[in-house]
Fold this sequence. Notes:
By secondary structure, the protein is α/β, with parallel strands linked by helices. Helices cover 36% and strands 8% of the residues. It is globular, with a radius of gyration of 18 Å.
Amino acid sequence: MYLSDLASTTFSSLPRHTPIVFPIAALEQHGPHLPLFTDSLLTGEIVRRAELCLTDRVVFAPVLWLGNSDHHLDFPGTLSAPPRTYLDTLLGLAENVLSHGFRRLVFLNGHGGNDVPGRQALFELRQRHRNRNDLLLLMATYWHLADPRQSPAPQLLQSEMGHACEWETSMILRLAPHLVGPHTHLPATTATTPFHPAFRAWTTLERSRDGYIGQPAAATAEKGEHLFSVFSATTVQLLERVVAWDGISWNE
């Protein structure tokens, strides 16, 4: 069910073990060929498909379109909440529903830049409520829930999610093809990892002059449907595990 569709009294009457899902995404540049709203569109479609399977067992908040996208700010159109501001926003959302007695919270992430502050927000939240053992606080980035190359599917050239890449371009081709600009001429851009295994701080412009990382020229709507199918199915599987949690154990 969707939080936005519920009356306050209806929400208040739900069992407090009902999982509350916060889908988090972004509004930022996606190369010369994809819309700024790509991450939010894709996350919203995965939520739509998951909700059809979970119906009244899980509450989905509206997609939070503002993300931590400071690394894309060299490209016009990007809107970003700085890391600490974003982290505090997530903390506030979580505290809102905890204050009403709900105990199972999931941040369902659809933007790579949200991953670190999202995890930190949950870590800080757990420390605030360290004396409780009835809380389940999770963060999941949807493309980390499965390897879509392991399922019978169209041939995917990329082994992982990039940015405005084969995977994202394919999904937008499936969802909103009218929003996709010319992309079949775009050369592949590889994400390098200098100084590996150390982590080097970066901006998108340092890694890609045109704002995309991957192989958008290889995208097809058929691949997009496969990706949506896999990612929505594994999202449902995760949320079913959250529903089935016994409410107290560290393990499932």
